[in-house]
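A.,

Following up on our hallway conversation. Structure tokens first:
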């Protein structure tokens, strides 16, 4: 005799913070004023178009369409009226023919409220991962069931959506969150969760996540759980470790030996230490690039030569070249570029 398994709803205390603090309404969506303004006008409108949300990760694309769906249909109908699929997992033509088409052709469940529109919504997250054949089949499905179903495609790269599909959608671009909006949201979460942290933690979260609020919230939750065990304040160094970024003093030391005409032995010793510390070479290149570009003391000519050297090192690493040798070669080229050697 087998026992029936029982599932319990996840409490707020155990929820990932990206779900716990996900926007519930359009008004809660941060920093996407143009998009939210247009979508507010569509609430209660029977002529909601097919939509294409595109932009960098963690900018609120999926949260926005889920919030819109909840406001359109209410908590009772949203489960029967909305189908959410992650197209990166289910991206073949069979998904379009089976799951999507079957849901699209079903008549919407009747509602007693006249304010609830008589259509369903299909959300295709990471739609840029769908195959060309699947997107072509999707175009036909969008045409056939347009009276009863609206589609919302969510993607990072709009150029990977075929033109016949993209042209049938209203496009909404989501931009990376600026520092003010990111800071406000992180400080709100920190207050709600009673988090103690040192000065510089929020700044470090903002600088390491580059406008990706989802990643910033995840890092903050990871740091909180790490410090709860020792009952200590979160430090900026903790954020650096969790994010997998390289401490700024390490990047500064590399630039220092490249800028001050140090001899080869000193350059080699510095980079050997970087390599032995286990830092990813790709991350070293990325942070060197940002540091050089943002520097006011480096000439435009030296910046151009340095960026070219970093790009060629990145290509070599992608092709499978030795990490330590490529970093050493890059350091010598940076030394020439930063010291004005032709």
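Then the amino acids I'd put at each of the 342 positions:
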């Amino acid at each position: 005799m087998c026992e029936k398994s029982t599932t319990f709803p996840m409490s707020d205390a155990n929820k990932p913070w990206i779900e716990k603090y996900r926007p519930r309404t359009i008004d809660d969506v941060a920093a996407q004023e143009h998009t939210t303004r247009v979508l507010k006008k569509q609430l209660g409108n029977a002529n909601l178009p097919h939509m294409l949300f595109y932009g960098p990760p963690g900018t609120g694309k999926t949260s926005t369409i889920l919030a819109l769906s909840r406001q359109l249909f209410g908590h009772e109908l949203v489960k029967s009226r909305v189908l959410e699929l992650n197209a990166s997992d289910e991206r073949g033509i069979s998904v379009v023919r089976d799951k999507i088409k079957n849901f699209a052709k079903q008549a919407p469940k009747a509602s007693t409220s006249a304010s609830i529109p008589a259509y369903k919504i299909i959300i295709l997250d990471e739609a840029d991962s769908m195959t060309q054949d699947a997107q072509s089949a999707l175009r036909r499905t969008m045409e056939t069931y347009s009276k009863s179903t609206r589609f919302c495609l969510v993607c990072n790269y709009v150029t990977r959506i075929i033109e016949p599909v993209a042209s049938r959608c209203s496009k909404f671009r989501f931009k990376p969150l600026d520092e003010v909006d990111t800071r406000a949201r992180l400080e709100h979460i920190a207050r709600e969760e009673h988090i103690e942290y040192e000065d510089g933690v929020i700044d470090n979260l903002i600088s390491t996540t580059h406008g990706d609020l989802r990643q910033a919230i995840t890092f903050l939750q990871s740091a909180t759980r790490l410090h709860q065990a020792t009952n200590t304040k979160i430090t900026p160094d903790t954020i650096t470790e969790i994010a997998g970024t390289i401490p700024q003093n390490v990047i500064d030391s590399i630039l220092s030996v490249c800028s001050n005409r140090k001899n080869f032995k000193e350059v080699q010793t510095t980079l050997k230490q970087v390599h032995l510390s286990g830092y990813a070479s790709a991350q070293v290149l990325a942070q060197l690039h940002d540091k050089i570009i943002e520097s006011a003391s480096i000439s435009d000519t030296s910046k151009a030569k340095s960026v070219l050297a970093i790009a060629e090192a990145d290509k070599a690493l992608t092709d499978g070249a030795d990490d330590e040798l490529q970093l050493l070669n890059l350091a010598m080229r940076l030394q020439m570029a930063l010291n004005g050697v032709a």
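The longest helix spans residues 61-81. Curious whether your intuition agrees with the design.

B.
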